[in-house]
């Protein structure tokens, strides 16, 4: 027997499709599948920092991948005690995108770790001048700015 196409409205087609789903008992599997998709998509909304880094706050989500990778590299160098290498890596990032506050805050932390509070304050002030909506990073920078006063 050949299938015949009968012209129907969109509403009828949807009703038929829903009726077919119920008759196939897929309605039991469908909610579970939708839940899995919902949970997996929510897990991707906010990235979690999996390794320790220089900053105690999350980075800007809209950061270019080249900047992000340089900052990860600098974080790794910092955690290994290679402060000069970390600063050199961050200086490369600054040459690419000089208005990212996270770069300047990382440099402030490194200078503070090295005991150079003057440089730490200058870099924290520069970082704060680029912050648009990140109160946690602003508070982090203020700790360097107020410590030198």
UniProtKB/TrEMBL annotation:
SUPFAM superfamilies: TPR-like. The chain crosses the membrane at residues 12-39. Gene3D superfamilies: Tetratricopeptide repeat domain (1.25.40.10). This is Uncharacterized protein. Keywords: Membrane, Transmembrane, Transmembrane helix.
């Amino acid at each position: 027997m050949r299938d015949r196409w009968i012209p129907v409205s969109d509403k009828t087609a949807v009703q038929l499709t829903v009726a077919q789903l119920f008759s196939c008992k897929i309605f039991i599997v469908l909610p579970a599948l939708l839940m899995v998709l919902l949970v997996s998509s929510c897990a991707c909304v906010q990235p979690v920092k999996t390794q320790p880094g220089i900053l105690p706050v999350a980075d800007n989500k809209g950061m270019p991948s080249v900047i992000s990778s340089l900052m990860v590299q600098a974080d790794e160098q910092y955690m290994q005690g290679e402060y000069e290498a970390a600063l050199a890596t961050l200086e490369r990032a600054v040459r690419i995108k000089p208005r990212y506050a996270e770069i300047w805050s990382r440099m402030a932390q490194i200078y503070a770790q090295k005991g150079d509070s003057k440089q730490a304050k200058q870099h924290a002030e520069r970082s704060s001048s680029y912050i648009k909506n990140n109160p946690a990073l602003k508070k982090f920078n203020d700790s360097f700015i107020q410590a030198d006063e």
